[in-house]
Amino acid sequence: MQDYIFEQDFVVRDYECDIQGIVNNANYQHYMEHTRHQFIKSLGLDFSDLHNRGIDVVVSKIQIEYKRPLHGGEAFVCKLNVCREGIRYVFQQDIYRCSDMALCTKGRVEAVSVVNGRLALCDEVEKALNVSQA
Questions:
Q1: Within a 10 A sphere around the Cβ of 73, how many other Cβ atoms?
Q2: Apex CA 80: angle with CA 74 and CA 86, to 5°?
Q3: Which residues of 85-95 are buried (b: 16+ CB within 10 A; e: fewer)?
Q4: Is 18 designated active site?
Q5: Closest CA relative to residue 56, chosen from 122, 107, 11
C-alpha cells in the first residue's frame, strides 16, 4: 500500500447495498466525494465561500475500478492523493476494507477550477492543495 495524504473512515449503511447485499456501485462516488470535501475543508477552503467569490472546483471525469465488494456494516477507509496534470487536479482515491486492508476500489477523479465562468487555475486553490505538476 502506498502513502496517502488524507484518509476518511466510513461504515457501510444497509441502504447503500443492492439486492445482492453489496454496496451499489454509485455509492462509491459518494464516498469519494465526501472524502474530497473533507480533505478540502481540512485545508481551510470552503466551497460555499469560493462559489460566492466566483470560484468553483468541479469534477470533469471519474474512473472507478471495482476490485472487491463491500457489504453492509463493514468499516472501510477512503485514502487520497492529489497532483496536477496541466489545468486538471487529479485525485487518486482508493478504498480499503478495514478488517484486512484489502483494496476494494481504485478511483481517479479529475477536477478543474472555473473562475468567473472561465476555466482557469486559481492561485488560492493551488496554494491550499500544494500540488506539483505530474
A1: 10
A2: 150
A3: eeebbbbbbbb
A4: yes
A5: 122
Q: What 3-state DSSP class applies to 121?
A: coil
Q: Report the distance separating Cα 87 and Cα 112, nearest Å.
A: 7
Q: Which of 124, 131, 94 is nearest to 109 (CA)?
A: 94
Condensed to tens digits (0 to 9), the pLDDT of residues 44-66 reads: 999 899 999 999 999 999 999 99
Cα-to-chain-centroid distance, residue 10: 13
Nearest to 59 by CA among 18, 30, 19: 30
Residue 64 grid coordinates: 472507478
Rg for the chain (alpha carbons), in Å?
16
Maximum distance among all Cα pairs of the chain, rounded to whole angstroms: 46
Other CB atoms within a 10 A radius of the CB of residue 52 amount to 9
Residues 6 or more apart whose Cβ sits within 8 Å of residue 124: 45, 50, 55
Among residues 9, 18, 46, 123, which one is catalytic? 18
pTM score, two decimals?
0.92
> In this predicted structure, what is the pLDDT of residue 50?
93
